[in-house]
């Protein structure tokens, strides 16, 4: 097994795991949380986010590692691949880094952080409703975008991996 095939396998696995994480948020976690009242929705999301941001280093390794592995794979792929495999690898990088990693850093994490800073106990019902409607729809929209782009990236990488 070559260094390239190992890196490609790691990148494929990492991007696929991230696609799975975002998919679970899209089809299970957020729909489940939305069945709660506004205050409970926000409190539950804050609890999940605290685990991700503070107590789960494996999550961060998978999330950030997927992007780093894809970058390293693409750099090496420029020397080793040609034709459609190289096109798919470049496309995967151009889809995943801005569409998943940068979107997360620019949209989802700031929304999470803003929610974490709010003391929900101090907000009245109208303020809670405003916080929920300001947070939920925007977070869900961008998570759905991340999900589709991460799945597309995983598909492109799987095609390359299977062609080797």
What sequence of helices (H) and strands (E) makes up the elements? HHHHH
Q: Which range does the strand content fall in?
A: under 5%
In which range does the helix fraction lie?
A: over 70%
Instruction: Quickly give the structural class.
Output: mainly alpha
Unreliable runs: none
Distance between the termini: 11 Å
Structure description:
The chain has 164 residues and is mostly helical. Helices cover 90% and strands 0% of the residues. The longest helix is centred in the C-terminal third of the chain and has 39 residues, at 125-163. The mean pLDDT is 96.
Short account of what is shown:
With 164 residues, the chain is an all-alpha fold. Helix content is 90%, strand content 0%. Helix 1 (3-33) crosses helix 3 (57-80) and helix 2 packs across helix 5 (125-163).
Q: How are the elements arranged and paired?
A:
Layout: H1 3-33, H2 38-55, H3 57-80, H4 83-117, H5 125-163
Helix pairs in contact: 1-3, 1-5, 2-5, 3-4, 4-5
What distinguishing features does this structure have?
90% helix, 164 residues
